[in-house]
Every structure is written in C-alpha cells, then in structure tokens.
Amino acid sequence: MPAARPQTDVTRTAILAHLGAHGPASRADLARALDVSPALITQLTRDLLADDLVEELEQASSSGGRPARMLGLVSQDATAIGVKVAPDHLAIVEVGIDGNVLRSETSGFDAISPLATSALVERVRDFVAADGAGRIVGVGVGLPGTVAERGIGIVDSTQLGWNQVPLGEILRRGLDLPVVVENNVNALSVAEQLFGQGRAHRNVLVVTIGNGVGAGLISDGAMVRGRAGGAGDLGHIPVREDGPLCQCGNRGCLEAIIGQGALVNDARSIRLVGPQEGIDELRSLADGGNEDAREIFAHAGHQLGRALAGAVNLLDPDIVVLLGEGVQAWSHWTAAFDRALRSALVPGKRGTPVVVEQWEDDRWAQGAAALVLATPFDARGVAGDQGRLVRERLVASMEAKS
C-alpha cells in the first residue's frame, strides 16, 4: 500500500467536514485549507463526486483566468452518534458531518453493574429514537480500555471492570446500526486530526490527564494502535519502583502518581481535604492560594513533564495536544511541567509545541462520533465490515437528498 494512503483516508473525511462547516469551496480553497497538494485534492474530490457525496456547483467569480468550479455537499443531513463510557456516567452526542455537536445528553452510569451493557443499549437507543435513526450513519463508542479490533469491539478495561466484553456485538444487535468501538483517547485523537489542532499536522501526540493518563499517536496521518489496540498507555509508564499501587496491578505507574485519584489521596494524607471531598475542592484550595494544594499540582506537573519528554524524544511528533478533565487546574501544573519537559528533551526537540485545549466533557463523545465519520474511507480496514456498512448508509443519506 502506498505510504500516502493513510493521509488520503482522513483527508476525504476532512473535505466533507470542511464543506459542511464552511460551505461550498473550490479545489484550490480546499488544498489551502487542508494543507495538502492540489493534485491530491483533485484525486480525492473525483472519488467523492463518483460516490455522489459532493457535487459541482456554480463557478466562482474570477478577476482573471478561468473561473474556479465550486464543490458542495450533496446533503448535510448525515450525522453520527458518539458515546463516551465512563465508570460513573455516559455522555452521548449527535454530531453533524462538519463535526459540530447537534445535541447531547449526560446521565449517570454504573459500569460494574451486571446490567451495565443492557443499560448502555437502552440509553443509546432512547437517544437515537428521540430524533429518528434515518440520518444516522453509525454509532461510535469511546471508553477507557483496550479494544483489539475497532469493528468487532471486544473490550478489556480495568477502569470499567470489564473483561472480554463483546460490546460491539451487543450494541449492534440492540440498535440495528453500524457500531465501532475504540479506546477513548484514540477516538479523541481522530477528532483532533479532523476538527482540532492536529488538522494541520501529520504527526500528532494527543495526551489526556484526568482520572487516568492516556495518549494517542497520529503518525504520518494514521492512528497508531499497536498489536492489539493498546498503544498509547502513557499512564502505565513505570515512574517510581516503590510507588503506589496502580489499578493495573503494578506499582509506581505515572497514572498512580498524577491521576486525579492519586492527587486527592495525597491531599487527604495531609488532611488538606476531607474524606468526602475530591478534586474540585483541591483545585479550589489551589485557586485560593493554598501552598500545599499548589505543591501537589506542581509535583504532578513535574512528573508529567519528565514522562512526556520521554515520549516526545521517542516519537518525534510535530505537535503535542494536551487536554482532559485535569487541564481545569492547568495553571497550577504549568510552571513545573514546562521546566521538567524542556530540560529533559534532547536539543533537537526542545522546540516541539505543546498546546493545551480547554475541556468540555462531551469532547470524548465527539471523538467517538468522529470515528464513525472517518470510517467510510478507512482503506486499511481497521473498522472491518462496519466501515462498509457506515459507507453504505452515508451514500444512501446523500442519494435520498439528491
């Protein structure tokens, strides 16, 4: 397979997203906006025209030379459902082809309940039924854990307490829609690649901090999943040999030292917060100037900076995108993080940009929906038969409006 093929997969989706977000555009406009060659845009728009996903419109006015032919979507009605599964809650969104969230819902969830998967099917089914399934091309699910094959969706997750749960099959049977399942940070990385800071780069490292610590890597325009879908376990890099016990069963993992639960435990150990208080109270203390609280976050920033420097030295990304629930306290992490990161990077990588994005909980679910929107053009077959089914529904939704 040609080396450039992964880039063409995501660029097809990006073309649809750009036309959905900004309206009709010429091929030259698309090449500039997506930072790819005019020849590639010509090739890919030819494919999209053949699939009846885009159409040629009127010519744009020109002050000289031949007027440019404008391209537009045949229909903007196609949408995808994205689901974030957390140990204690669900976030569900419907996302348009332009990546915008059209509606969302958050509700409580008990992942360790024997009826957890049945409850999940019921919540998603009700969400779909509230707007009708006609325009929905598929459902994407992002969760903390390992998913060996996105299109099959068998889940192992220590955070959820799930072992070999056939979630994809359960949801497909219950919803009668194509379903793809992926690690939540990988799903978020796809969203960054299509709609976020990673859009202008081919090598992107996405890092999340919060209850856990995760990473997703886009390399040469393609998601790196590893042998069994478990690439990116930044939180389980061993940091301290005699450190605290991690939920994975090992000691001294990065996540066991800087995850939100670890920070709260540190605060409770010095009676800074009470037994029923958590990360919100710890952050409020730091915001109010409490030096002990600020020191806890600063220590976490230092540990993250050193670990991330190792990842940057190893992977050599164009850019690092940092986000997650933990960035709400980033002002207390940042100084120690910056010092530790830059001092541990090799000289040639000290200029690697790190951008911190503001966080909203439904971004996880938006990432899961982005998986669906990218699936129709997955030439490597990561989504298996589900990719074909999503593509068929996408084409059918366009034909219905033509």
TrEMBL record:
SUPFAM superfamilies: Actin-like ATPase domain, Winged helix' DNA-binding domain. It comes from the Bacteria. It holds the Pfam family ROK. Belongs to the ROK (NagC/XylR) family. This is ROK family protein.
